[in-house]
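hey team, just a heads up i'm posting the complex here instead of the shared drive bc the drive is being weird again. everything in one block, sequence lines first with there labels, then the predicted structure for the whole assembly after. its two chains so it's a bit long, scroll down
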Amino acid sequence: MRYAMAVDTKKCVGCSDCVVACQTENHVPIGYCRDWVVEVTDGTYPQLEIELRSERCNHCNNSPCVRCCPTGASHYSEGGIVLVTPNECIGCGACIASCPYDARYPHPDGYVDKCTFCIHRIKKGLKPACVAVCPTRCMYFGDLDDPKSEVSEVLKRRKHKTLIPEAGTSPQLYFLI
Amino acid sequence: MTSRRDFIKIAGVSLGGMTAGGKAAYQAMANTLEKNSLDPTLLNRTPTYCEVCFWKCAGWVYKKPDGDIWKITGNPDDYNCNGRFCPRGTGGVGMYYDEDRLQTPLIREGKRGSQYYRKATWDEALDKVAEGMKKIAQEHGPECVALFNHGSGGTYFGHLMKAFGSPNIAAPSYAQCRGPREVAFLATFGEGVESPERTDIRDTRCLVLIGSHLGENMHNGQVQEMSDAIDKGATIITVDPRFSTAAGKSKFWLPIKPATDLALLLSWIHVIINEGWYDKDYVDKNTFGFDLLREHVQNMTPEWAYGITTIAPHIIRETAREMANASPAVIIHPGRHVTWYGDDSQRLRAVAILNAILGSWGRRGGYYNPDTLKLPEYPHPPFPTPQRTWREAFPGKYPLAGLALASGLCDATIPALTRNCSIKGWIVDGTNLIETLPNQKNTIEAIQNLDLLVVVDTMPMEITGWADVILPECTYLERYDTVRTGPHRQPQLALRMPAVAPRYDTKPASWMAKELAKRLGLEAYFAWESIEELIDWQLKQVGSSLAEMQRIGVKTFPRKYDDLYFNPAESYEFNTSTGKIELYSNEFANAGFDPIPNYTPHEEPPPGFYRLNYGRGPAHTFSRTSNNPNLTDIMDENVLWINPKVAQEWGIKPGQEIWLKNQDGVVSQFPIKARVTERIRWDSVYMVHGFGHDDKRLTRCYGKGASDTRMITKVHIDPVMGGTGMRGNFVTFLFEPETMEAKS
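-- predicted structure starts here --
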């Protein structure tokens, strides 16, 4: 099993609903976030292009954050989801420094926090909160090992990319372009 | 205990009983109410519909183990949201948790605007309001009390006003927002666009957005359907001087010179008629005045429009072709906030005409025919007939206004010789008029002429600082409200019930209105004991009940007729003077306006000034959300979009704080940060509306960004219906705050 997410940049309107939904679902304190929206504008008026992306932890196959964690708090869970066990985390911040995507933040309670792909929801057969809330339905989530999953289907059909592939982390957050 | 089966039987009886007088049947139901209504504290989720904006998406409120609110998610059965809330709806929890909320009734001690208040009991506050209303009614007539409202509370205060004898009930959503569109579509098709809009975006093949920034305005269902349309490969054409998010999704972006949209629309009509691309059968069968229209637009060529709009003729032709190819599954979107330049009804008439000749009205992928289930009103005595109508607030003006004008009532508060009486009392519910009505100086002058200003709100918005009595409302998460009945493809009802008990000493508007009614001797108009009883009674008239709605949140009903789209085999009569779709409007002609729209040039910015455009950010609704802790976390201030060329000329760096000064010398109260971006034309600047709050009680948003409303001092009023055109204001930049000039 290999969980992955695809975000359709052609449909995302950058509304940040994914951010608000994640914050409320996961009790992320105000002022912090596990996901965020990036806007990239190219060109000069009036020849313009814009790409909107909802970004979060890439749940890499080869995660520097897991490798560098001195206590083993950062670990791979089922389906390759990268998680942090709060009570094993000493808050040293090595993982924060190692992440090419800047996907982690120091939680005010003293541990490092990040996107979990809403594993508590997946276990109940629900989709991650960001995917479930998105008004444009621009996010697809599922198991890449299942060729029939939503995410496998859309990646077969559509041109896509990952961010900073040259970091060699094998990211599992895909962007449809 | 009443079983579900018995309970349905009772509901059936009541429906029959209604026609025969209904009182006895109702009494029987009232007795079963207690059993049928569920205790909210025992439910793990409670239904609501959102009050953060007017889209009113239905959802579920979930609670934490400690019983406080955890999250709100969309109800999958609801057509407005399809189970997905927008960021504002998701962040609606912040409205409840905001510690800056109004917490207790307040009564002014001292002059208006001085903000000395004392805490009061509800009895004291309501007595004072009732006393003030009675005094105005005795001295000037009940019509001299006006209600301004936005949101659900308006239902109850509106009912109270009607019982009191005042027709002066206005929502800024008409004259400051969508009024021109409703007037134009009524004149053309005999029906308005309504809310949620009847646009069939889901199945469209071509969506044309004119200044309408779907995606930045999170009109939830529409944004969802736009996304569906993108998935299905629909063409999107966006006309906007700004490269909006929607423009970024478009096959064609027409970076039009601001204020020239009408010329573009007329040239599109020209091309579509002259090339023979219009829907001939539909036009022959359903429209009136086609030949007059054809003649009218003969000189309005793309070449003519090019000189005005800066849009190249071949692009005008190519986009017209795209629309025609998609016809009738094409939507020239009417927009929502359309009070721009003062000829807005005419611009929207051109939009309506273009839709009509492409045959999109009543067609799949164009405009569907919505259906609504109306709930019967709880029995009450007939309302008194007011001595004066709301039209007398502006005698002889704006003949086609279909609803009272908030701006008109505000103006009618300032004594003038042209009127035989001025408005003396305002009840303001859920709308921050200081930031809603253009020309703040005028609004404040009106307020200074009032004998009574009552503000009902959840937050200490600027308008509360001018109130004589402040009535703190509990948020939508803490109250029942009128059942949502808005139009859609199929009629739906949605229930709002409290998820939790009200925080602080706050109350629902329904309770306040009923309490005021008691004090005004109007109890008979509020004959229900509790709002639960009222809602249950209403629901039972249509075969549902409060208990059922508490379980399901949203209920869908069948359409009355199978007429979502027109049947080509049938003939239709439209609610216009000719019974046809009026390309040539007799209504406009009779009222002395152009029966077919004409382009008139608008004022342009003087040298060194830029047209001030404003819009919405996806995380905020007007100024209502600007202090919401969850939503300020996403966006806590507005920024000024400036083209890099302009920024270079002025030496403005990205992120630099600048002050704005408009054509009348009014200076922004706070600085605004520059967003230097290619996404805006060089002749205009842009900011998100709703920021620059100057009330210190709003601790998170005080002094953050600038208020566009403050800069809108010149208002271009639409002579057709009184809409307040707000996009004819120009600003320049200051690097230091200037002392306020006399004019401001």
